[in-house]
Design a protein that fits this description.
Blueprint: H1 5-8, E1 10-20, E2 26-36, E3 46-50, H2 63-69, E4 82-86, H3 110-125, E5 132-136, H4 138-149, E6 156-159, H5 168-182, H6 197-210, H7 213-219, H8 223-240, H9 243-251, E7 269-274, H10 286-291, E8 297-302, H11 317-330
Parallel strand pairs: 3-4, 3-5, 5-6, 6-7, 7-8
Antiparallel strand pairs: 1-2, 2-4
Helix pairs in contact: 5-6, 5-9, 6-8
Length: 333
Amino acid sequence: MTTDWESKAVPGFHTVSDFPFDDGHRLDVNLAYHTLGSLNAGADNAVMLLHGTTGSGRQFLRPSIADFLFGSGRPLDVSRYFVVLPDALGHGGSSRPGEGLGPDFPHYGYSDMVEGQHRLLVDGLGIERLRLLLGTSMGGMQTWIWGQRYPDQQALMAIASLPERITGRNLLWRRMLIQLITSDPGYADGRYNKQPAGLGHAMALFQLMVGSARHMASDLRSVDAADTQITLTESQAMDNEDANDVVWEFDASRDYDPAPGLRSIRAPLLAVNFEDDELNPVELGVLERAIAEVPHGRALTVPAGPKTRGHQTLHVAEVWCDHLAELLAATES
């Protein structure tokens, strides 16, 4: 029986007054989060999970993730661990452009987002050291930054990410996505009265890039099926997303470049990628070269199989939860 993890998660907010953005702006920001389980007396059972671009901490409450991580006997059994699920700055319930400032909201970067996560953890929750930091996609990228900036965590796990500056195809589609929105006359330099049509087109591109080529080949076997998928994706985007939020979310990766500091990561780090993830193509060999720089790093690529979904395998915890269990066992004090 599937557990209703949404109802078990406890919501919270932490306000940071006069938060200093890297671009020089300062602003009072609210950081939203959910928790599962209880912090023990020693405050040494906390784990934090970092979500992907356009998402929120609630992505980890999906049954396809939560049932395999948080249940009794599972790797992050919430009777044993205190699980923190933050909404990154600019995402979910945290401060973001769509709340009112629109294009006047500071152009945050990954560095700002990591700083916000750390302030939530230390100042908001009183936790100095994590038993585990785990991130998926954008959250995985931020895990590499965490390992360098805050090196005293007990274990790190980066899923579906690469520890290098964004270049090539990955850079190109991100800039295309932003231009699909900002070049739409309805965007009006970010001061629109209704969501511009370019937002829907941008999110359709996003779904194309993170999807599984193998599954799309079987699911989209006609023009009608493809057109229906496009219409559905764009309609959902227009109903649920904000154009400025999306532009800021994808632009935030501009300052990402953990490669020069990989040797400074002291905590044991496990990087897990997926063979059929075309967003992080295995043929480039980036992960294998990079992990050799990490003193206590290990990397593995999960072979493509019936349960993998390309980049979206990050939502299928059944595929990677055993590797998480092995990391926790290997780093038990």
